[in-house]
Each structure stands twice: as structure tokens, then as C-alpha cells.
Specification:
single chain; mainly alpha
Length: about 70
């Protein structure tokens, strides 16, 4: 929680308003709110013609970025 506070403070000082995006929110933009990482990876690989993704944080990062870009549908 302390790290989150520091990140929010730094973002605020640089003129960015931090936004909390819950996993169910960005997952529901691609699949269901309870989708597993494997499901999200398969969807992203198909949407963007990607090579197989490692099932780690990069899947989450790509999915969160896509959700933010598309307006958290």
C-alpha cells in the first residue's frame, strides 16, 4: 500500500490524476470479469496477431492498456 501511495503522489505532482482500474473492469473489456490469464492471452494473441505470450504480467499490461485505450467499454 505504501508503494501505491508513492506512485499516486508522484503522478499527482506531474499533473496526472491516478485512476484505479480493478481487474474485473479491464478483464470484462475483453472477456468476462472472471476470465483467467490464459483466456486473456488467447484473445490478445488473436486480436493483434501476436506470437504466443508468456503467461505473466505482460498479458495483464497489454490487456490493461487496451482497455484504457478503448475507454474501458
Amino acid at each position: 500500500m505504501q508503494v501505491l501511495g508513492v506512485l499516486n503522489l508522484v503522478a499527482y505532482r506531474h499533473g496526472c490524476l491516478p485512476t484505479m482500474i480493478y481487474p474485473a473492469t479491464w478483464k470484462s473489456n475483453l472477456d468476462t470479469p472472471k476470465a483467467q490469464r490464459e483466456d486473456i492471452a488467447a484473445i490478445l494473441e488473436h486480436m493483434f496477431s501476436l506470437n504466443p505470450l508468456k503467461l505473466d504480467a505482460q498479458v495483464d499490461a497489454i490487456a490493461i492498456t487496451y482497455a484504457a485505450w478503448s475507454g474501458l467499454g
